[in-house]
Structure of Dihydrolipoyllysine-residue acetyltransferase component:
Amino acid sequence: MENINEQIRIIAEQYDIDLSKIKGSGPNGEVTLHDLEAYIKEHYFPKVKQEVKIFGIRKVIGDRLSRSYREAVHVTLNMEVEMDKIIEIREKLAKKLEKKPSYTVLMLKCIAKAIRDFIEINATMEGNKIMIYDNININIAVDSPIGLITPVIRDVDKKSLEELLSDYQDLVERAKKGILKEKDFVGGTFTVTNLGMFGIDSFTPIINPPQIAILGLNRIVKKPVIKDGEIKICNVMNLSLSFDHRAIDGAPAARFLQKVKHYLENPEEVFEVE
């Protein structure tokens, strides 16, 4: 019994849970391991929106792709996006917030809005089931003393920009100090990785299993673009989306990427500046 209590204490510490706030079902109201697991599932894991059984043609496609690719079942799409408007809105938000928000955080808000429009990409694939989630919990690839890790920010679409900036800064700081906890890695539904700061123009992100997609962000660079029949110098960036072809086809994945592009190029639909 003492070992079980110690296990409960250790797990609760990993999730910063005050055990006194959990209604226990054990003797004299003690919190059991089952109580703690139920609490963690309720507060740290995404709620399932839809469960889709894979069968018929989709199962045949999945089986064939698995056999064909074995270890590499992902496909990557690249798309160019103009970043002038988001650069402008960043300056306006900097005045409002009295500090410059990072491009990564601004792009996270745009990505989350696109995911809400195409919720089928907010999913995991386990066995013959695709689990589509209602909560948009985005894993962020962060460089740390132990290598590249992917802690999660929950409910990105529901958070205000201020909340998101605070959560992102907290995660990055704790990652660099090596003091992240188990709660920081569970419940992710989609992953974003940014290599722009390293001067990367395009790459093939590796899917974070069991998720079905990951979006890579690249460097912002000035280049000539033809607009309205004229050559103009614009700030552009490539988006690199890797997805599991067993779970989603190229056309819907491309439409999702187009929606991300739309919000990045029309950030006034995402952010309130005035």
Q: What stands out?
A: The two ends are 58 Å apart (CA to CA). The chain is about 35% helix and 25% strand. Residues 161-177 form the longest helix (17 residues). The chain has a mean pLDDT of 89.
